[in-house]
Amino acid sequence: MKAFVLSSSPRRNGNSSILAQSVREGLEESGHEVEFAYVDDFIRFFLRDCRECRKPDGECAIDDGFRSVFFERYLPADGFIAATPIYWYGASAQLKAFFDRTFCYYAASHPRSAEVTGGMLGKRVGLVLSSEETFPQVSASIVSQVQEFSRYTRSTFVGVVHGIGNARGDVYKDPLDPVASARRFGRDFFTRHATDYQLDTPRSGRVWG
User: Fold this and answer.
1) What is the pLDDT of residues 140-188, one digit of tens each?
2) pLDDT per position as a tens digit, 88-146
3) Is residue 190 classed exposed, middle or buried when 0-12, 13-18 and 19+ CB atoms within 10 A define those classes?
4) What are the CA-CA distances from residue 208 to residues 12, 35, 102, 199, 204 (Å)?
């Protein structure tokens, strides 16, 4: 399977980036093809008004590296794992910009809108977080946002790895060992049990068989 791991922290050796690399290692251990990227390497601008910004042929006029990463790494991937530190009880601005910028390409005004929409559907989605605060609800808004993104794209939200730390490398000291959890998350990403039942979902009375 193909996976795309996206690290959105501005710190290359920050805690969420460490966890993202551990997910990558786990995926590779299981034989999956992995693309890894830092948002800061390819996003330079926020989303604009497409009605004013588009080129005459309908293509996005924002000139940075987002388009190539989106078409060549994100859309072909069977799984997507986003990593972010928790800033003000939400995701980093870089990760939010990544999600926002996808609109340029699935909007009906883009010439390849139908193709892009098809490529966005049906992925497995994971989330990797780091925070200084241990309050259980500190991650609630980000988890909810990614759950809704998964629902909107008819994707499967696989789960969350959350490490605690502030200074660089603090997650290595977290007694719950989120680095090992992230690696295991990567190894099991495409086989991990994940459900989102509706009232009429066909299911047995047993989870593990």
Assistant:
1) 999 999 999 999 999 999 999 999 999 998 999 999 999 999 999 999 9
2) 999 999 999 999 999 999 999 999 999 999 999 999 999 999 999 999 899 999 999 99
3) middle
4) 39, 32, 37, 20, 10
Give the start-to-end residue ranges of the domains of the chain.
2-188
The model scores a pTM over 0.85:
yes
Give me the CATH topology for the region 2-188. Rossmann fold (3.40.50)
Residue 33: strand pairing partners: 2
Tokens of 35: 């693309």
Q: Could you tell me which residues come within 8 angstroms of residue 38 by beta carbon, excluding any fewer than 6 positions away?
A: 6, 7, 8, 12, 17
User: CA nearest 7: which of 92, 90, 64?
Assistant: 92
Alpha carbon distance 164, 131 (integer Å): 5
Taking Cα atoms as reference points, which of 86, 60, 3 lies closest to residue 37?
Answer: 3
Instruction: Say how far residue 21 (Cα) sits from the centre of its chain.
Output: 13
**β partners of residue 161:** 128
* Beta-strand runs (E) in 39-155: 79-85, 124-131
